[in-house]
Amino acid sequence: MAEPTKKKSSGSCLGKLFFLTIVALACGFGTAVYFITQPQDLSDIDGYGPLTQAAPARDMQEVLQNSIKRGYPLTLTEMEINQWLGRKLVVKQGGLLAGVVSLERVWVRLTDGQAEVVMERRILGRPFTVSIFLQIEQTQGAKKIGTEVLLHGGPYHELLPRPTRGGRFGKLVMPQGFLIMVLPAYQKLAAVFKEEIHLGFEEMARITIEKKRLVLNPLAPSSGPENLPQTF
Question: Residue 83 needs a FRET pair 20 to 30 A away by CA distance; which of 7, 24, 58, 135 works?
């Protein structure tokens, strides 16, 4: 008579465990959706807010061209970049969602070694943000320096190198694989600034992303026969 009781108790425990697992997954999913729908705080970005006409807008193409032609390093602050983006970019949302989704502004947040490009949208009148993390990788060869702009957000934790952080949907940091949903919008954005990207990231020999500023140098570092190819 004891054996049926044990089987019933074992089945009851498994049922409770399954139920608790489902509840935990539902709570986790609900929490993720909540943070995705909450726009990230942009107040720490220099230049954030309504555009002001106090200072004349700089022609970014001309500034970059002068740096390259005259061979002097150029420093662009986070505020300059964001004010220029606000004046240069005419933002709009096309397609089937044109009446529901509007693209308000694009912002750039600069930290040591990383840039975060944020798109600020409104969906049914509510603010919503998405972003991607980018880094610059430069490889110095015997004659030329190669430059690549790569997706990069680093690991979530030093003990968890994979998956890498890709960007943020709202306040939630997302793995890099989820960026497939927003990359087409960023590719269209890059096409708008094709000439500036060419001058700033293809013509410049050295590029450094620092906190609150982007440093561009058209002069390659001095090289000698002892220099070996390296990444910096």
Answer: 135
Q: Which two tokens stand for residue 94?
A: 């096309």
End-to-end CA distance of the chain: 74
* Listed residue (46, 28, 21) closest to 172, CA to CA: 28
Cβ(57)–Cβ(84) below 8 Å? yes
Amino acid, res. 91: V
198-219 pLDDT, tens digit per residue, is 999 999 999 999 999 999 999 8
What is the rounded (10 degree) CA torsion for 193, 111, 174, 202? 30
pTM of the predicted protein model: 0.82
Distances in Å between the Cα of 206 and the Cα atoms of 34, 108, 134, 162 are 41, 20, 16, 29
Three-state SS for 147? strand
